[in-house]
Structures are given as C-alpha cells and as structure tokens.
Amino acid sequence: NLRINQSLNPESTSKFERKKLTASLAKVFDEIKARQIAEAIVIGHTDTMGSEQYNIGLSERRAERVRQELIRRGIPENIITTKGMGESELLIDTADEVAEARNRRVEIDVR
Description:
The chain is α+β, with helices and mostly antiparallel strands. It has a four-stranded mixed beta sheet with strand order 1-4-2-3. 38% of the residues lie in helices and 16% in strands. It contains two helices and four strands; from the N terminus they run βαβαββ. The radius of gyration is 14 Å and the shape is elongated.
C-alpha cells in the first residue's frame, strides 16, 4: 500500500501545486515500477467543506489527476483505476464545513 497524504487541488494551475504533486508521485512511481504491480487503485478524499455531492466529484477529479500523472510517467493505464470517496473516510474526524488539509488527500493502493 503506497500513500500520498497531502493537500491537492485538481483545479489549481499554480506551479507550487504541480511541484508538490510531481515530487510526491516521483517517489510513488519509482516504488510502483520496482514492484511490477498488477493493479493500482487511486482513491481521492476531501474534507467536509461543501456538499456531499460536490465532494464526491472533487475527490473523483483529485484521483483522476493523480492517475493521469502516473500514466504520464509510464504506468500502464489499464492497471490504474480511480475511486472518489468524498468526505466518507476522513483521516481526521471533523464536523461539517470544517477545512482540514489532512483530509484532502489521495491514496494509492497497489497490488
């Protein structure tokens, strides 16, 4: 199980966000390549800001952005699936409408 736990904003075009994503994925990419895995599941998560429906979509976009970067780095697209969990699996329990960066994350499970 490989994990990226950092704030990712799929709508962001800032160099800072792209650099954070690229640096984290470089480590994950190296590990995936070394393991010669058969399957990678990219799971997006959000905090509790916004509606549940909005957060499902946001988590799906977050996971898809990471999937696209893995494909760009040479991981075969046919072994990568994505899933958006929205705010259903919080890392840090919070009330509704609480911005918690640690809950805005992507996890990558490899098998």
